[in-house]
Write a structure and sequence with these properties.
Elements: H1 2-16, E1 26-31, E2 33-37, E3 43-47, E4 51-56, H2 76-79, H3 92-107, H4 112-122, H5 135-140, E5 144-148, H6 160-170, E6 175-177, E7 184-186, E8 194-196, E9 199-202, H7 228-243, E10 248-252, E11 258-265, H8 270-284, H9 291-307, E12 317-327, E13 330-340, H10 341-355, H11 367-374, E14 376-380, E15 383-387, H12 392-402, H13 408-420, H14 431-436, H15 441-454, H16 471-489
Parallel strand pairs: 2-5
Antiparallel strand pairs: 1-4, 2-3, 6-7, 8-9, 10-11, 11-12, 12-13, 14-15
Length: 499
């Protein structure tokens, strides 16, 4: 289900943003150095500036002496024979590139740059780079490729020939029934990686190459067959989502794990897709510091809810996926949810209604601000800092985005902070300290009201009711009058507050 949604998202983005989303098997890569060679394979020059291009996707399993080479671009160990035991002999790593160049020049004899690259290795021209002034930097480089003198195209740049070559390599893999597409196809053995937090080469799906992990004689990817192109698609989709500020919300959780929640819609129209994702992104970071954003989000989702399934966004689906990097090579999925845009509109409006409160101060609706308001506040280098409870932001965020009850710990911590912060700095004698102290009373009141409103199902009347004789209600009215009197006496009011 998750991989299928990501697979479909890739193909939608490929149509809507063809310049941003590379073709299957390719990715955007920045080359550290470009070696310029002549048609006869001799060395000509080195381009120093970073060179951005669409190149074949990097190989993910770069471990061990038999680690495969990227297609026509890689580190100096592969491309320049760096670290070879004998400079006159090619290392195992560089031998792979030579075999690749031989195969490409044979399949595509009209590509002069492929033939020139083959001659470069046959003539051992890489030896000249050992004495070059950039030799020390070249050895440390992780992205080196070649260019034929007189051409503006890198040998590894996206092309019809390399697309055919990637397809040719894919056909060498075993076939199976793809779990994503439901079609018979060549399946992947090792999955591509995504850089996310501590996971520099994180994978959503992967299998170890070990007899102990084989199932009924099936090795690695054969255990759960997924086609190579389906794997290309969902990996590219995750990369795009995690790199887009508009589609992400980052959460700091237990053990300082960077949790990233990504969201996207099923809209196939570019304008509709961007409108939906922009409004959801605004909602994820929503506060009354920007009242225009609050009004915009509320108006947008109110209209969506009003129109229902017959409206512009009635048949669209919204997806939410939380990714947690657990090791350098693993990414876990800790949360997955999908719902119609209409249902999500109802969730948004219910949260905003639950948190709404008549107050002189601005109320923030987003999960981070809600957790900050109930956390212990301290001054760190002149600025407020918070001792947040592990995973509370994550829990609050999920309750907001799914319409589930707010965490009980949020409510209890809120009451605890209200009781603990009775004595604030004196604004007369400690004016500088008071100016740095963040007053969260209104937000805490909003959280208490929201918790009771959603979790306890108490109907909270916002209007003044002089007929109610309940002691708690009357006590609350007296405290409100007392607080307002103290504010006026201490000159805490400003032009932004209502008099």
């Amino acid at each position: 289900m998750i991989l299928k949604a990501l697979y479909e998202y890739y193909h939608r983005c490929r149509k809507l943003y063809p310049d941003e989303m590379p073709a299957l098997g390719f990715e955007r890569v920045t080359m550290d150095y470009v070696i310029v060679i002549k048609e006869d394979g001799t060395f000509a020059n080195i381009i120093l500036s970073d060179y951005d291009c669409i190149a074949p996707r990097a190989v993910s399993n770069k471990t061990g002496t038999k680690a495969p080479a990227n297609i026509l671009w890689d580190s100096a160990k592969y491309m320049l024979n760096a670290g070879a035991d004998d400079i006159d002999e090619l290392s195992n790593h560089c031998e792979m590139v030579l075999d690749m160049a031989t195969e490409l020049s044979t399949i595509f004899p009209n590509r002069k740059d492929f033939t020139a690259l083959l001659k470069f290795y046959q003539k051992k021209e890489y030896k000249k780079l050992e004495k070059h002034e950039l030799a020390k930097k070249l050895i440390k480089s992780k992205a080196i490729t070649f260019m034929l003198k007189g051409e503006n195209r890198l040998v590894c740049s996206e092309s019809a020939e390399l697309e055919d070559y990637i397809s040719h390599l894919a056909q060498k893999n075993p076939k199976g029934l793809c779990l994503v597409t439901g079609k018979e196809a060549n399946i992947f053995l090792t999955s591509g990686g995504v850089s996310l937090g501590m996971a520099k080469n994180g994978k959503l799906v992967s299998f170890m190459e070990d007899k102990g992990y084989d199932s009924h004689g099936k090795k690695q990817g054969e255990n759960a067959p997924i086609s190579i192109y389906a794997e290309y698609a969902y990996t590219a989709a995750v990369k795009r989502l995690t790199r887009s500020a508009k589609n992400t919300f980052n959460v700091k959780g237990k053990l300082d794990l960077d949790k990233t929640l990504v969201f996207w819609s099923s809209a196939t129209d570019k304008e509709k897709s961007e409108a939906l994702e922009t409004k959801v992104s605004l909602f994820a970071h929503l506060s009354q510091d920007n009242p225009d954003d609050v009004d915009s989000v509320k108006a947008f989702f109110s209209q969506v809810k009003k129109e229902g399934v017959t409206g512009t966004y009635g048949k669209e689906t919204f997806y939410f996926l939380e990714l947690v990097p657990t090791t350098k090579g693993r990414i876990a999925i800790s949360f997955w949810n999908e719902c119609s845009v209409k249902d999500f509109a109802d969730i948004v409006l219910r949260h905003m209604d639950a948190m709404s409160i008549e107050a002189n101060r601005k109320i923030k609706y987003d999960a981070l601000s809600m957790v900050n308001s109930v956390s212990l506040c301290k001054i760190d280098n002149g600025f407020p800092a918070y001792d947040r409870l592990p995973n509370l932001i994550d829990s609050v965020f999920r309750s907001i985005f799914t319409g589930m009850p707010y965490p009980e710990v949020l409510f209890k911590t809120c009451l605890s902070r209200i009781n603990a912060e009775q004595n604030r700095p004196n604004p007369k004698s400690e004016l500088s300290e008071y100016g740095r102290f963040e007053n969260r009373d209104a937000e805490r009141a909003a959280i208490v009201k929201a918790y009771l409103y959603r979790n306890v199902k108490q109907n909270i009347n916002k209007m003044l009711n002089t007929e109610i004789k309940d002691r708690g209600y009357l006590c609350g009215r007296l405290f409100a009058v007392l607080e307002r009197a103290q504010e006026l006496a201490n000159h805490e009011t400003s032009n932004e507050w209502r008099s």
